[in-house]
Please model this.
Amino acid sequence: MSIHSPVDQNPTAPLPASSRSATPAAGVVPEFAPPPADRPRKRYAVAGTGHRAGMYVSALTGDHADVGHIVAWLDPNPGRIDWYDAQVRDAGASDPRPPALPRYTPDELERMVAEQKVDVVIVTSPDHTHAALVERALRAGADVVVEKPLTTDAEGCRRITQAVAETGRDVVMTFNYRYAPRNSTLREVIASGRIGTVTGVHFEWALDTVHGADYFRRWHREKENSGGLLVHKSSHHFDLVNWWLDDVPRRVFASGGLRFYGDVNARERGVGERPERGTDAPGDPFSLDLRSDPRLEGLYLDAEHHDGYRRDLDPFAPGITIEDNMAVLVDYRGGALLTYSLNAHSPWEGYRVTVNGTAGRAELEVVERGFVDLPENGEAVLDPSATPVPAAGEALRPDGERLIVQRHWERAEEVPIPAGIGGHGGGDAILLMDVFRGDLRLAPDPLRRPAGYLDGVRAVAVGIAANEAMRTGQPVPVGELGLGTDL
Model:
């Protein structure tokens, strides 16, 4: 593996143009000092061995093996542990460790930290388990790296903030979208004052019918597990706005519903009988055949007999409790206003951001997949991040990104976006450098991209408040959520 090609975390997400370069533009990658020869490598444990763990396992068995190594697994499913353990052995990272790394179940976290002398626990488990695992790891004496979202509700925020305060240990949030050059460039434009003081942001995110449908096949389809897309997915986006504005949310109103996926919507549109699951359902564009991706087959299909979890449910099956269409209005403490929308069944994937200021306007448009190109068998390419496909040649909506700035009384100007490396808009590889060797940076990050637990609280605060607003039909002051800390 090269440092420029970490394993992408989402097998159905499109590969944007800014991720396809193996050579980053000058100044994009920060400089790091080599680790001292006498410094021992940090000892990492991975809590949650689903697909999302892959990026971190690849990093610690590849480009960052000189500063850290995996010493234990924690997961209730031994089949998924088996799959990752084989990856570690194949990478040669277990030498001189024994062929199989120690494994633990979630109730054994404290024993794992003590027995394996764990320095850092990487939490990549389902969202609703984050708060307990983070809190317990901190109290057991380990630092934590946690995938977004930090947690799914206010109680989880309180548990984590109290544990941080009482232990003094560190929590790193992996907000990789901050590191995408297009998003970093927009932050630079805003911070420079070119458009004046920001008065409002409009942010529209479109998930296509491959990537979007995937949230309605897996455990995310139940709000008690994921907090819904406004927590699980949109915490990325709300963090970007918080970071761009260097501000915190004050009040939230939201509306949303399940308008496309689910059995009721399918029946109302006259959709006939559907397969119960996607595997062995050829030719159906809304089905996911786990055999189409070796990682999905190994981590889920081959492991489902251990716990009964099926990763390939039909997105039009009963039991979905999350929304697929959402609109959010956020007042910020500094006076700016955010209007945000998320659609999970778009024919194309990408996002548009408009930032209005007292001196002008900035517009960022990103097309990650202009349309879903179905082959003859009807099955969309599931992992263009791992296996890039030739550009489809869409003339009206070509894949790409563009940032335009226009000041009052002046012509519009396009701002160059430098090439990134790795998935998620070219930000993953740079994020991993900060996660695993951030203390070796030769200079502080002027963009302040590294994120901690408080950034995680600020991001989920919007989604938590939005869920409450959808439940009550009333605007929700963020300060009344009881998050355990002042944002």
In short: The first strand starts at residue 42 and ends at 47.
